[in-house]
């Protein structure tokens, strides 16, 4: 039986690196030749695309901040849930603006709610995204201070804060 000689591992690594370098040089021969001569190849110039305006997203507020702004009269709370849910129960003093009709109303809120009014949208808590979508609609409609109370009605009620039933 013949015994095969194995190549030392460092020799194998050196051989692989040498082969990779030779393949790289052969593949990029034209580019390297031009660089050696001091010539450059100009890449195709691509005209810059106009920057897309990022969609404005309302910032979140917590329970304590929502309560303080509401109680001091500095903010208007807006319920994004459907009308039936609002009639059943809502945060006392809140306005109803269901997400399903917000796009169709121009302007979406009463005249006494100006573009500078602080608006806090809410819905059915953290699993409900209607308040965020309503906030985006209100920002697009020109309201400048729109926030989202992500805890919504459940967090408000669980804190023992006043709720009401019926239309407002």
Description:
With 168 residues, this protein is an alpha/beta fold. It has helices spanning 9-27, 29-37, 63-71, 83-88, 99-102, 130-140, 152-158, and strands spanning 59-61, 75-79, 90-91, 95-96, 118-122, 145-149, 163-164. The protein has a 5-stranded parallel beta sheet, with helices on both faces. The longest helix is centred in the first third of the chain and has 19 residues, at 9-27. It is elongated and about 90 Å long.
- Kindly report the spatial arrangement of strands forming the biggest sheet: 1-6-5-2-4
Q: How much is the radius of gyration in Å?
A: 32 Å
Biggest pleated-sheet summary: 5 strands, parallel
The helix/strand class is alpha/beta
Number of strands: 7
Helix/strand layout:
Blueprint: H1 9-27, H2 29-37, E1 59-61, H3 63-71, E2 75-79, H4 83-88, E3 90-91, E4 95-96, H5 99-102, E5 118-122, H6 130-140, E6 145-149, H7 152-158, E7 163-164
Parallel strand pairs: 1-6, 2-4, 2-5, 5-6
Antiparallel strand pairs: 3-7
In short:
The protein is an alpha/beta fold. The protein has helices at residues 9-27, 29-37, 63-71, 83-88, 99-102, 130-140, 152-158, and strands spanning 59-61, 75-79, 90-91, 95-96, 118-122, 145-149, 163-164. The longest helix has 19 residues, at 9-27.
């Amino acid at each position: 039986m013949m015994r095969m000689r194995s190549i030392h591992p460092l020799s194998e690594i050196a051989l692989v690196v040498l082969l990779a370098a030779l393949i790289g040089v052969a593949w990029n021969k034209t580019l390297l030749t031009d660089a050696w001569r001091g010539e450059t190849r100009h890449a195709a110039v691509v005209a810059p695309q106009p920057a897309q305006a990022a969609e404005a997203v309302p910032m979140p507020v917590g329970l304590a901040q929502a309560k303080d702004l509401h109680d001091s009269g500095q903010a208007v709370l807006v319920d994004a849930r459907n009308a039936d849910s609002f009639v059943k129960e809502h945060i006392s003093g809140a306005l109803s603006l269901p997400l399903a009709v917000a796009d169709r109303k121009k302007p979406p809120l009463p005249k006494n709610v100006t573009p500078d009014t602080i608006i806090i949208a809410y819905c059915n808590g953290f699993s409900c995204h209607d308040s965020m979508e309503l906030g985006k609609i209100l920002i697009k409609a020109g309201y400048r201070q729109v926030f989202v109370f992500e805890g919504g009605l459940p967090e408000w009620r669980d804190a023992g804060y006043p709720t009401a039933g019926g239309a407002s």
